[in-house]
């Protein structure tokens, strides 16, 4: 039982760390950003450096922005999301469940309005699990993303065939298309799942299906790192000597979203940046992840797209239009993503049903399920 009085005392104790005043950081970042955005040679200077931070590349001015309309009358939007029940040794069964939620929303005359579905898949430890040097929980996470892409690809191909290229269509993925989680994985795990993820992206490319990763409340710091580089490597060039001597150069609380808020207005987007994380070296050029920041009214979000879309201004415009319209319809968040989450989520009663059905089927096969004493105590079971 949670002691509320003690919790309040703990909140008061850590309040200064929870709610920090970062106004001085924002002032410093704004000053430096204005300098580097006005320097047409800054991008070329970066190429000569070897810095420890992840920095992007781009074309044009850093603070370029482009308007995006708030209304689109006819298009299709698809999204998938995944949820799971991790293996639980206390339940006496060695299996996991992944539930993929899928939502297709269509707008315009003659279009079907809503398609909702979910697809559960149960995994039992097999030979592949033995070959992959990874924890059961992490394998579930990797497989969940794999199934999300596969389900999205299959439904995208159906929609694309139905549209016949005449109506705009976007497959909106909840999260990054930069597979950060694989960077630190064992080589066998990395190659196994990277090949599957990229295969889905390749097939989406071959069909010409617009695909984008949507990241809300982004904590990315690739643009912040440009400010860091300016302060540490080009202090003299930009006239920052006094700053480096007398000001606290910490900008640890800044994010890219805070940086672009200096110049990005509602329903506009930034220029397109190329990501250079280590994992992207495994991507073919036409799938290489690029990103831009989009002000959807309620917040600034990060949108990730493969290069084949990023290099075509008309495709970027189409993706941006559909995302903004989805956010307007969803009161600040794409309605297709929100509905996909609702289809995917596995709640407490769902989890109980899952284990009850396993128990029932086990009994029909004369198998006695062995629960741990911990589960027995929690459920108040009597045997």
Describe this structure in words.
The chain is α+β, with helices and mostly antiparallel strands and 383 residues long. Among the domains are: 74-217 and 263-346, archaeoglobus fulgidus dsm 4304 fold, CATH 3.30.2170; 349-379, no CATH class. Helix content is 44%, strand content 19%. The strands form 2 sheets. A 9-stranded mixed β-sheet has the order 1-9-10-11-7-6-3-4-5, with helices on both faces. β4 (95-107) and β5 (114-124) form a beta hairpin. The longest helix is centred in the middle third of the chain and has 28 residues, at 136-163. The two termini are 27 Å apart.
- Radius of gyration over C-alpha positions, nearest whole angstrom: 24 Å
What is the average per-residue confidence, as pLDDT, rounded to a whole number?
Answer: 88
Number of strands: 11
Distance between the termini: 27 Å
Level-2 CATH architecture of the domain at 74-217 and 263-346? 2-Layer Sandwich
């Amino acid at each position: 039982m949670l002691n509320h009085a003690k919790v309040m005392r703990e909140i008061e104790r850590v309040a200064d760390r929870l709610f920090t005043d970062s106004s001085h950081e924002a002032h410093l970042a704004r000053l430096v950003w204005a300098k580097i955005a006005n320097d047409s040679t800054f991008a070329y200077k970066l190429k000569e450096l070897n810095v420890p931070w992840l920095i992007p590349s781009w074309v044009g001015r850093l603070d370029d922005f482009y308007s995006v309309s708030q209304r689109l009358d006819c298009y299709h939007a698809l999204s998938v999301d995944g949820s799971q029940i991790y293996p639980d040794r206390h339940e006496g069964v060695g299996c996991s469940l992944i539930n993929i939620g899928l939502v297709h929303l269509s707008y315009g005359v003659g279009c079907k309005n809503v398609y909702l579905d979910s697809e559960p898949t149960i995994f039992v430890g097999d030979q592949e699990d033995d070959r992959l040097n990874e924890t059961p929980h992490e394998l579930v996470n990797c497989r969940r993303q794999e199934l999300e892409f596969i389900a999205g690809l299959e439904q995208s191909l159906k929609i694309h065939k139905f549209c016949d290229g005449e109506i705009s269509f976007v497959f909106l993925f909840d999260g990054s298309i930069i597979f950060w989680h694989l960077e630190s994985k064992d080589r066998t795990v990395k190659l196994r799942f990277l090949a599957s993820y990229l295969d889905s992206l390749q097939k989406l490319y071959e069909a010409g299906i617009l695909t984008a990763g949507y990241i809300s409340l982004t904590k990315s710091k690739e643009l912040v790192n440009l400010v860091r580089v300016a302060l540490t490597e080009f202090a003299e060039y930009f006239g920052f000597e006094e700053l480096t001597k007398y000001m606290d150069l910490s900008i640890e609380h800044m994010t890219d979203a805070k940086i672009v808020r200096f110049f990005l207005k509602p329903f506009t987007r930034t220029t397109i940046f190329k990501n250079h994380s280590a994992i992207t070296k495994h991507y073919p050029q036409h799938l290489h992840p690029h990103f831009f920041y989009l002000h959807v009214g309620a917040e600034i979000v990060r949108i990730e797209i493969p290069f084949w879309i990023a290099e075509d201004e008309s495709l970027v415009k189409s993706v941006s239009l559909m995302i903004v319209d989805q956010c307007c319809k969803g009161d600040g968040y794409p309605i297709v993503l929100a509905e996909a989450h609702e289809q995917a989520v596995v709640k407490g009663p769902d989890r109980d049903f899952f284990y009850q059905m396993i128990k029932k089927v086990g009994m029909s096969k004369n198998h006695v399920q062995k629960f741990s004493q911990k589960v027995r105590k929690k459920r108040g079971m009597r045997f």
